[in-house]
């Protein structure tokens, strides 16, 4: 495959470098902030209150999901659930709470290694 691209003329190079530096630095800062949140779990109580693991809680805002009313079922008890987007949870809240799991991805809510349910 051949990629087509527009050339940056010499007089526009400085503004392009400045603009991309800004964007790239912002992306790096966001990644560092996310890594710090994943590591330190500063919103632990709010996170566990929402029944989400660290990854699903702190990375939620980085997920692109379709805006559509989405119907699905809990993967443990088959209870019907409805969501405002295509970013659906795997478990209903009662099942997630009962087993202390992330309602979105079914991971252990504190990343403990499970030997039984
Ligand atoms: Zn359930
Ligand atoms: Zn999760």
Descriptive notes:
It contains 4 helices and 2 strands; from the N terminus they run H-H-H-E-E-H. With 117 residues, it is mainly alpha-helical. Strands 1-2 form a two-stranded antiparallel ribbon. The longest helix has 28 residues, at 13-40. The N and C termini lie far apart (49 Å). It binds zinc ion (2 copies).
Brief digest:
With 117 residues, the chain is mainly alpha-helical. The chain has helices at residues 13-40, 44-49, 54-59, 93-99, and strands spanning 70-73, 80-83.
Largest sheet: 2 strands, antiparallel
Count every helix, treating DSSP H or I runs of 4 or more residues as helices: 4
- Share of helix, binned: 40-55%
The shape is elongated
Measured by DSSP, the beta-strand proportion falls in 5-15%
Low-confidence stretches: none
**SSE series:** HHHEEH
Number of strands: 2
Strand order of the largest sheet: 1-2
Bound molecules: zinc ion
Kindly report the average pLDDT value. Answer: 96
Determine Rg (CA atoms, Å).
20 Å
- Give the N-to-C terminal Cα separation: 49 Å
Category by helix and strand content? mainly alpha
What would the keywords be for this entry?
mainly alpha, two-stranded antiparallel sheet, binds zinc ion, 117 residues
Layout of strands and helices, then pairs:
Elements: H1 13-40, H2 44-49, H3 54-59, E1 70-73, E2 80-83, H4 93-99
Antiparallel strand pairs: 1-2
Bound molecules: zinc ion (2 copies).
């Amino acid at each position: 495959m051949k990629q087509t691209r527009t050339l940056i003329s010499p007089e526009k190079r400085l503004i392009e470098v400045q603009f991309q530096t800004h964007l790239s630095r912002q992306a790096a800062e966001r990644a560092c902030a996310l890594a710090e949140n994943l590591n330190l779990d500063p919103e632990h109580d709010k996170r566990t209150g929402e029944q989400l693991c660290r990854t699903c809680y702190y990375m939620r805002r980085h997920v692109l999901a379709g805006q559509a009313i989405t119907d699905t079922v809990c993967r443990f008890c088959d209870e019907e659930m409805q969501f405002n987007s295509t970013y659906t949870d795997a478990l209903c809240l009662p099942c997630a709470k009962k087993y202390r799991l992330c309602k979105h991805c079914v991971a252990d809510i504190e990343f403990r290694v499970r030997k039984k349910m």
